[in-house]
Amino acid sequence: MRLLHTSDWHLGRSFHRVGLLDAQAAFLDHLVATVRDREVDAVLVAGDVYDRAVPPLSAVALFDRALHRLAEAGVPTVMISGNHDSARRLGVGAGLLDRAGIHLRTDPAGIGTPVVLADAHGDVALYGLPYLEPALVRERLGAAKPGHEAVLVAAMDRVRADLAARPAGTRSVVLAHAFVAGGAPSDSERDITVGGVAAVPTTVFDGVDYVALGHLHGSQALTPRVRYSGSPLAYSFSETDHRKTMWLIDLGADGEVAAAERVDCPVPRPLARLRGRLEDLLADPAHDRHQDSWIEATLTDAVRPHDPMARLAERFPHTLHLVFDPERADTESLASYAQRLRGRSDQQIAEDFVSHVRVGAGLDAAERNVLYGAFDDVRVDTAATEREGGR
Protein backbone atom coordinates (compact mmCIF):
# COMPACT_ATOMS: atom_id res chain seq x y z
CA MET A 1 0.00 0.00 0.00
CA ARG A 2 1.37 3.39 -1.00
CA LEU A 3 0.94 6.15 1.61
CA LEU A 4 1.58 9.88 1.19
CA HIS A 5 2.54 11.30 4.59
CA THR A 6 2.30 15.05 5.17
CA SER A 7 1.60 17.36 8.11
CA ASP A 8 1.82 20.90 9.52
CA TRP A 9 0.18 22.79 6.67
CA HIS A 10 -0.54 25.74 9.00
CA LEU A 11 -3.07 27.20 6.59
CA GLY A 12 -3.47 30.93 7.23
CA ARG A 13 0.06 31.47 8.53
CA SER A 14 2.33 34.23 7.22
CA PHE A 15 6.11 34.52 7.09
CA HIS A 16 7.36 37.70 8.78
CA ARG A 17 4.13 39.43 7.73
CA VAL A 18 4.34 38.10 4.15
CA GLY A 19 1.14 36.24 3.25
CA LEU A 20 1.62 32.62 2.24
CA LEU A 21 -1.88 31.72 1.06
CA ASP A 22 -0.81 31.50 -2.60
CA ALA A 23 2.18 29.34 -1.66
CA GLN A 24 -0.07 27.08 0.44
CA ALA A 25 -2.49 26.78 -2.49
CA ALA A 26 0.42 25.81 -4.76
CA PHE A 27 1.46 23.13 -2.25
CA LEU A 28 -2.05 21.67 -2.18
CA ASP A 29 -2.10 21.63 -5.99
CA HIS A 30 1.18 19.72 -5.83
CA LEU A 31 -0.20 17.31 -3.24
CA VAL A 32 -3.25 16.43 -5.36
CA ALA A 33 -1.06 16.04 -8.46
CA THR A 34 1.27 13.71 -6.53
CA VAL A 35 -1.68 11.62 -5.36
CA ARG A 36 -2.75 11.11 -8.96
CA ASP A 37 0.64 10.83 -10.64
CA ARG A 38 2.24 8.50 -8.10
CA GLU A 39 -0.77 6.19 -7.63
CA VAL A 40 -1.14 6.91 -3.93
CA ASP A 41 -3.52 4.64 -2.01
CA ALA A 42 -4.04 6.86 1.06
CA VAL A 43 -3.09 10.35 2.22
CA LEU A 44 -2.03 10.86 5.85
CA VAL A 45 -2.18 14.37 7.35
CA ALA A 46 -0.61 14.36 10.82
CA GLY A 47 -2.08 17.52 12.33
CA ASP A 48 -1.76 21.32 12.37
CA VAL A 49 -3.95 21.71 9.32
CA TYR A 50 -4.59 25.31 10.38
CA ASP A 51 -2.23 27.73 12.08
CA ARG A 52 -4.68 28.77 14.77
CA ALA A 53 -7.88 27.58 16.40
CA VAL A 54 -10.02 30.18 14.61
CA PRO A 55 -8.48 30.40 11.13
CA PRO A 56 -9.19 33.21 8.64
CA LEU A 57 -11.95 32.55 6.12
CA SER A 58 -9.43 32.47 3.27
CA ALA A 59 -7.66 29.52 4.95
CA VAL A 60 -10.97 27.72 5.53
CA ALA A 61 -11.88 28.18 1.85
CA LEU A 62 -8.49 26.77 0.81
CA PHE A 63 -8.98 23.74 3.07
CA ASP A 64 -12.49 23.21 1.71
CA ARG A 65 -11.20 23.16 -1.88
CA ALA A 66 -8.47 20.69 -0.92
CA LEU A 67 -11.01 18.31 0.65
CA HIS A 68 -13.20 18.42 -2.44
CA ARG A 69 -10.26 17.67 -4.73
CA LEU A 70 -9.03 14.78 -2.58
CA ALA A 71 -12.55 13.33 -2.49
CA GLU A 72 -12.85 13.68 -6.28
CA ALA A 73 -9.53 11.84 -6.69
CA GLY A 74 -11.10 8.87 -4.93
CA VAL A 75 -8.12 8.38 -2.62
CA PRO A 76 -8.90 7.98 1.12
CA THR A 77 -7.48 10.69 3.37
CA VAL A 78 -6.92 10.28 7.12
CA MET A 79 -6.38 13.53 8.99
CA ILE A 80 -5.85 14.36 12.68
CA SER A 81 -5.93 17.63 14.61
CA GLY A 82 -2.70 19.15 15.94
CA ASN A 83 -1.92 21.48 18.80
CA HIS A 84 -2.59 24.55 16.60
CA ASP A 85 -6.01 23.28 15.49
CA SER A 86 -9.32 23.49 17.26
CA ALA A 87 -10.23 19.81 17.38
CA ARG A 88 -13.94 20.62 17.72
CA ARG A 89 -13.96 22.99 14.74
CA LEU A 90 -11.82 20.78 12.52
CA GLY A 91 -13.98 17.77 13.34
CA VAL A 92 -17.29 19.38 12.35
CA GLY A 93 -19.03 17.18 9.77
CA ALA A 94 -16.62 14.27 10.29
CA GLY A 95 -19.40 11.69 9.99
CA LEU A 96 -20.56 13.05 6.63
CA LEU A 97 -17.02 13.45 5.34
CA ASP A 98 -16.31 9.80 6.15
CA ARG A 99 -18.71 8.85 3.37
CA ALA A 100 -16.60 10.85 0.91
CA GLY A 101 -13.40 9.09 1.97
CA ILE A 102 -12.15 12.01 4.14
CA HIS A 103 -11.60 10.60 7.63
CA LEU A 104 -11.15 13.29 10.31
CA ARG A 105 -9.90 11.99 13.63
CA THR A 106 -10.12 14.79 16.19
CA ASP A 107 -11.88 13.13 19.15
CA PRO A 108 -9.78 11.06 21.60
CA ALA A 109 -12.77 8.75 22.03
CA GLY A 110 -12.15 7.37 18.55
CA ILE A 111 -8.48 6.49 19.01
CA GLY A 112 -9.13 2.74 19.09
CA THR A 113 -11.38 2.78 16.01
CA PRO A 114 -9.27 2.69 12.85
CA VAL A 115 -9.96 3.46 9.23
CA VAL A 116 -9.56 0.03 7.59
CA LEU A 117 -8.31 -0.08 4.01
CA ALA A 118 -7.36 -3.10 1.95
CA ASP A 119 -4.96 -4.01 -0.83
CA ALA A 120 -3.88 -7.25 -2.49
CA HIS A 121 -2.14 -8.36 0.73
CA GLY A 122 -5.03 -7.78 3.13
CA ASP A 123 -6.19 -5.14 5.57
CA VAL A 124 -4.35 -2.05 6.79
CA ALA A 125 -5.73 -0.41 9.96
CA LEU A 126 -4.99 3.32 10.20
CA TYR A 127 -5.36 4.82 13.68
CA GLY A 128 -5.58 8.57 14.20
CA LEU A 129 -4.24 10.00 17.47
CA PRO A 130 -5.12 13.71 17.55
CA TYR A 131 -2.94 16.01 19.63
CA LEU A 132 -3.52 14.94 23.22
CA GLU A 133 -3.29 17.75 25.78
CA PRO A 134 -2.52 15.83 29.00
CA ALA A 135 -4.61 18.02 31.31
CA LEU A 136 -7.68 17.57 29.11
CA VAL A 137 -7.52 13.88 28.21
CA ARG A 138 -5.75 12.14 31.09
CA GLU A 139 -8.94 11.03 32.85
CA ARG A 140 -10.75 10.15 29.61
CA LEU A 141 -7.90 7.87 28.54
CA GLY A 142 -7.22 6.49 32.02
CA ALA A 143 -3.57 7.55 31.93
CA ALA A 144 -1.56 6.42 34.94
CA LYS A 145 -0.04 9.88 35.52
CA PRO A 146 0.08 13.35 33.94
CA GLY A 147 2.32 14.15 31.00
CA HIS A 148 2.59 13.54 27.27
CA GLU A 149 4.20 10.13 27.58
CA ALA A 150 1.51 8.81 29.92
CA VAL A 151 -1.42 9.89 27.73
CA LEU A 152 0.26 8.56 24.57
CA VAL A 153 0.94 5.23 26.30
CA ALA A 154 -2.74 5.05 27.26
CA ALA A 155 -3.77 5.93 23.70
CA MET A 156 -1.44 3.33 22.20
CA ASP A 157 -2.78 0.72 24.63
CA ARG A 158 -6.17 1.23 22.98
CA VAL A 159 -4.61 0.93 19.55
CA ARG A 160 -2.80 -2.30 20.42
CA ALA A 161 -5.92 -3.76 22.06
CA ASP A 162 -7.97 -3.15 18.92
CA LEU A 163 -5.19 -4.46 16.68
CA ALA A 164 -4.89 -7.66 18.73
CA ALA A 165 -8.56 -8.40 18.09
CA ARG A 166 -8.17 -8.16 14.30
CA PRO A 167 -7.23 -11.01 11.95
CA ALA A 168 -3.60 -12.09 12.03
CA GLY A 169 -1.52 -10.27 9.45
CA THR A 170 -3.46 -7.00 9.68
CA ARG A 171 -0.95 -4.23 9.06
CA SER A 172 -1.10 -1.06 11.13
CA VAL A 173 -0.40 2.66 10.74
CA VAL A 174 -0.63 5.34 13.44
CA LEU A 175 -0.90 9.10 12.87
CA ALA A 176 0.21 11.17 15.88
CA HIS A 177 1.00 14.78 16.64
CA ALA A 178 3.71 14.90 19.29
CA PHE A 179 7.32 15.76 20.09
CA VAL A 180 9.15 12.43 19.94
CA ALA A 181 12.67 12.09 21.38
CA GLY A 182 15.40 12.29 18.78
CA GLY A 183 13.52 14.78 16.62
CA ALA A 184 15.21 18.07 15.71
CA PRO A 185 12.96 21.09 16.41
CA SER A 186 12.98 24.53 14.81
CA ASP A 187 11.90 27.99 15.99
CA SER A 188 8.45 27.81 14.42
CA GLU A 189 6.85 25.03 16.50
CA ARG A 190 4.73 25.98 19.47
CA ASP A 191 6.08 24.68 22.78
CA ILE A 192 4.05 21.75 24.14
CA THR A 193 6.12 21.16 27.28
CA VAL A 194 4.20 19.90 30.29
CA GLY A 195 5.96 19.73 33.65
CA GLY A 196 9.29 20.43 31.99
CA VAL A 197 8.96 17.42 29.66
CA ALA A 198 7.82 17.57 26.04
CA ALA A 199 9.51 14.65 24.26
CA VAL A 200 8.27 11.06 24.38
CA PRO A 201 10.35 8.00 23.41
CA THR A 202 9.82 6.19 20.12
CA THR A 203 9.12 3.00 22.12
CA VAL A 204 5.67 4.43 22.92
CA PHE A 205 4.71 3.39 19.37
CA ASP A 206 6.04 -0.17 19.51
CA GLY A 207 3.84 -2.77 17.87
CA VAL A 208 2.71 -0.86 14.76
CA ASP A 209 4.19 -0.95 11.28
CA TYR A 210 4.42 2.77 10.45
CA VAL A 211 4.06 5.96 12.51
CA ALA A 212 3.26 9.17 10.61
CA LEU A 213 4.25 12.03 12.89
CA GLY A 214 3.42 15.71 12.84
CA HIS A 215 4.54 18.71 14.94
CA LEU A 216 8.23 19.16 14.08
CA HIS A 217 8.76 21.14 10.88
CA GLY A 218 11.86 19.36 9.60
CA SER A 219 11.46 16.15 7.58
CA GLN A 220 13.27 13.38 9.46
CA ALA A 221 13.27 9.65 10.11
CA LEU A 222 13.69 8.73 13.79
CA THR A 223 13.63 5.05 12.82
CA PRO A 224 12.71 3.42 9.51
CA ARG A 225 9.15 3.07 10.85
CA VAL A 226 8.80 6.39 12.74
CA ARG A 227 9.03 9.56 10.64
CA TYR A 228 8.17 13.25 10.58
CA SER A 229 7.11 14.63 7.22
CA GLY A 230 7.81 18.20 8.33
CA SER A 231 5.95 21.28 7.15
CA PRO A 232 5.56 21.82 3.39
CA LEU A 233 6.72 25.44 3.70
CA ALA A 234 9.30 27.19 5.85
CA TYR A 235 7.75 29.19 8.69
CA SER A 236 10.92 30.59 10.29
CA PHE A 237 14.48 31.40 9.26
CA SER A 238 15.63 28.49 11.45
CA GLU A 239 14.33 26.32 8.58
CA THR A 240 16.70 27.87 6.03
CA ASP A 241 18.53 24.57 5.52
CA HIS A 242 15.40 22.40 5.47
CA ARG A 243 14.44 20.48 2.37
CA LYS A 244 10.64 20.66 2.40
CA THR A 245 9.12 17.34 1.38
CA MET A 246 6.40 14.73 1.90
CA TRP A 247 7.11 11.06 2.55
CA LEU A 248 5.95 8.53 -0.06
CA ILE A 249 5.86 5.25 1.86
CA ASP A 250 5.36 1.80 0.35
CA LEU A 251 4.06 -0.53 3.05
CA GLY A 252 4.94 -4.12 2.14
CA ALA A 253 2.96 -7.31 2.43
CA ASP A 254 4.33 -8.06 5.91
CA GLY A 255 4.11 -4.47 7.16
CA GLU A 256 7.71 -3.62 6.31
CA VAL A 257 8.59 -0.18 4.93
CA ALA A 258 9.55 -1.45 1.49
CA ALA A 259 10.40 2.02 0.18
CA ALA A 260 10.52 5.57 1.56
CA GLU A 261 10.92 8.47 -0.84
CA ARG A 262 10.98 12.20 -0.16
CA VAL A 263 8.79 14.11 -2.59
CA ASP A 264 9.87 17.75 -2.83
CA CYS A 265 7.35 20.52 -2.23
CA PRO A 266 7.23 23.76 -4.25
CA VAL A 267 9.45 26.54 -2.83
CA PRO A 268 7.84 29.99 -3.10
CA ARG A 269 11.14 31.76 -2.43
CA PRO A 270 14.44 30.47 -0.99
CA LEU A 271 15.64 31.64 2.44
CA ALA A 272 19.06 33.01 3.31
CA ARG A 273 20.72 34.08 6.54
CA LEU A 274 23.49 36.64 6.00
CA ARG A 275 25.90 37.87 8.64
CA GLY A 276 28.53 40.60 8.58
CA ARG A 277 29.09 44.34 8.49
CA LEU A 278 26.59 46.25 6.41
CA GLU A 279 29.08 47.52 3.84
CA ASP A 280 30.46 44.01 3.36
CA LEU A 281 26.99 42.55 2.81
CA LEU A 282 26.22 45.23 0.25
CA ALA A 283 29.47 44.74 -1.66
CA ASP A 284 30.30 41.02 -1.49
CA PRO A 285 29.64 39.42 -4.91
CA ALA A 286 29.22 36.03 -3.19
CA HIS A 287 25.78 37.20 -2.10
CA ASP A 288 24.51 37.80 -5.64
CA ARG A 289 22.70 34.44 -5.55
CA HIS A 290 20.57 35.66 -2.63
CA GLN A 291 19.12 38.73 -4.31
CA ASP A 292 15.76 37.00 -4.88
CA SER A 293 15.72 35.24 -1.49
CA TRP A 294 13.89 36.12 1.69
CA ILE A 295 16.69 37.49 3.85
CA GLU A 296 17.49 37.55 7.54
CA ALA A 297 20.52 39.82 7.99
CA THR A 298 22.61 39.91 11.15
CA LEU A 299 24.71 43.07 11.25
CA THR A 300 27.96 42.94 13.19
CA ASP A 301 28.95 46.62 12.82
CA ALA A 302 30.45 48.04 16.02
CA VAL A 303 28.18 51.10 15.68
CA ARG A 304 24.65 50.67 14.35
CA PRO A 305 24.53 51.93 10.75
CA HIS A 306 22.09 54.57 9.58
CA ASP A 307 18.88 53.26 7.95
CA PRO A 308 20.21 49.70 7.49
CA MET A 309 16.93 48.10 6.36
CA ALA A 310 16.44 50.52 3.47
CA ARG A 311 20.05 50.13 2.37
CA LEU A 312 19.85 46.33 2.47
CA ALA A 313 16.59 46.39 0.53
CA GLU A 314 18.34 48.18 -2.35
CA ARG A 315 20.40 45.04 -2.98
CA PHE A 316 18.14 42.45 -1.34
CA PRO A 317 14.56 43.61 -1.98
CA HIS A 318 13.08 40.73 0.02
CA THR A 319 14.87 41.45 3.31
CA LEU A 320 12.41 40.59 6.06
CA HIS A 321 14.31 40.46 9.34
CA LEU A 322 17.18 42.45 10.79
CA VAL A 323 19.30 41.43 13.80
CA PHE A 324 22.10 43.43 15.45
CA ASP A 325 24.99 41.50 16.98
CA PRO A 326 27.98 43.89 17.13
CA GLU A 327 31.45 42.43 17.25
CA ARG A 328 33.31 43.33 20.44
CA ALA A 329 37.05 43.75 20.49
CA ASP A 330 37.25 43.40 24.26
CA THR A 331 36.31 40.36 26.31
CA GLU A 332 33.88 41.07 29.09
CA SER A 333 35.03 40.17 32.58
CA LEU A 334 33.09 37.43 34.28
CA ALA A 335 33.40 39.22 37.60
CA SER A 336 30.19 40.05 39.40
CA TYR A 337 28.51 43.38 38.77
CA ALA A 338 29.33 44.56 42.30
CA GLN A 339 33.01 43.65 41.86
CA ARG A 340 33.23 45.54 38.57
CA LEU A 341 31.75 48.68 40.16
CA ARG A 342 33.83 48.65 43.32
CA GLY A 343 35.97 51.78 43.79
CA ARG A 344 34.58 53.61 40.75
CA SER A 345 32.71 56.90 40.76
CA ASP A 346 29.25 57.40 39.31
CA GLN A 347 30.83 59.42 36.51
CA GLN A 348 33.21 56.56 35.61
CA ILE A 349 30.41 54.00 35.69
CA ALA A 350 28.26 56.12 33.38
CA GLU A 351 31.15 56.72 30.97
CA ASP A 352 31.92 53.00 30.86
CA PHE A 353 28.26 52.24 30.16
CA VAL A 354 28.23 54.61 27.20
CA SER A 355 31.43 53.02 25.91
CA HIS A 356 29.87 49.57 26.30
CA VAL A 357 26.70 50.31 24.33
CA ARG A 358 28.74 52.09 21.67
CA VAL A 359 31.06 49.06 21.48
CA GLY A 360 34.23 50.89 22.48
CA ALA A 361 33.40 54.40 21.26
CA GLY A 362 33.66 56.53 24.41
CA LEU A 363 32.45 60.04 25.13
CA ASP A 364 34.08 63.09 23.56
CA ALA A 365 34.96 66.14 25.65
CA ALA A 366 31.64 67.92 25.11
CA GLU A 367 29.61 64.84 26.03
CA ARG A 368 31.76 64.26 29.09
CA ASN A 369 31.07 67.84 30.26
CA VAL A 370 27.32 67.36 29.78
CA LEU A 371 27.42 64.15 31.78
CA TYR A 372 29.50 65.79 34.50
CA GLY A 373 27.02 68.66 34.71
CA ALA A 374 24.10 66.27 35.02
CA PHE A 375 25.71 64.40 37.89
CA ASP A 376 26.62 67.68 39.56
CA ASP A 377 23.02 68.90 39.33
CA VAL A 378 21.78 65.62 40.83
CA ARG A 379 24.22 65.93 43.72
CA VAL A 380 23.08 69.51 44.41
CA ASP A 381 19.40 68.56 44.30
CA THR A 382 19.99 65.55 46.54
CA ALA A 383 21.85 67.62 49.11
CA ALA A 384 19.10 70.26 49.08
CA THR A 385 16.44 67.61 49.59
CA GLU A 386 18.32 66.10 52.50
CA ARG A 387 18.69 69.50 54.10
CA GLU A 388 14.96 70.17 53.73
CA GLY A 389 14.19 66.78 55.24
CA GLY A 390 16.45 67.45 58.22
CA ARG A 391 14.74 70.64 59.25
Automatic annotation (TrEMBL):
<dbReference type="InterPro" id="IPR004593">
    <property type="entry name" value="SbcD"/>
</dbReference>
<keyword id="KW-0378">Hydrolase</keyword>
<dbReference type="Pfam" id="PF12320">
    <property type="entry name" value="SbcD_C"/>
</dbReference>
<feature type="domain" description="Calcineurin-like phosphoesterase">
    <location>
        <begin position="1"/>
        <end position="218"/>
    </location>
</feature>
<dbReference type="InterPro" id="IPR026843">
    <property type="entry name" value="SbcD_C"/>
</dbReference>
<dbReference type="InterPro" id="IPR041796">
    <property type="entry name" value="Mre11_N"/>
</dbReference>
<comment type="function">
    <text>SbcCD cleaves DNA hairpin structures. These structures can inhibit DNA replication and are intermediates in certain DNA recombination reactions. The complex acts as a 3'-&gt;5' double strand exonuclease that can open hairpins. It also has a 5' single-strand endonuclease activity.</text>
</comment>
<keyword id="KW-0540">Nuclease</keyword>
<keyword id="KW-0255">Endonuclease</keyword>
<dbReference type="InterPro" id="IPR029052">
    <property type="entry name" value="Metallo-depent_PP-like"/>
</dbReference>
<protein>
    <recommendedName>
        <fullName>Nuclease SbcCD subunit D</fullName>
    </recommendedName>
</protein>
<keyword id="KW-0235">DNA replication</keyword>
<dbReference type="Pfam" id="PF00149">
    <property type="entry name" value="Metallophos"/>
</dbReference>
<comment type="similarity">
    <text>Belongs to the SbcD family.</text>
</comment>
<feature type="domain" description="Nuclease SbcCD subunit D C-terminal">
    <location>
        <begin position="268"/>
        <end position="356"/>
    </location>
</feature>
<comment type="subunit">
    <text>Heterodimer of SbcC and SbcD.</text>
</comment>
<dbReference type="InterPro" id="IPR004843">
    <property type="entry name" value="Calcineurin-like_PHP"/>
</dbReference>
<keyword id="KW-0269">Exonuclease</keyword>
<dbReference type="InterPro" id="IPR050535">
    <property type="entry name" value="DNA_Repair-Maintenance_Comp"/>
</dbReference>
<keyword id="KW-0233">DNA recombination</keyword>
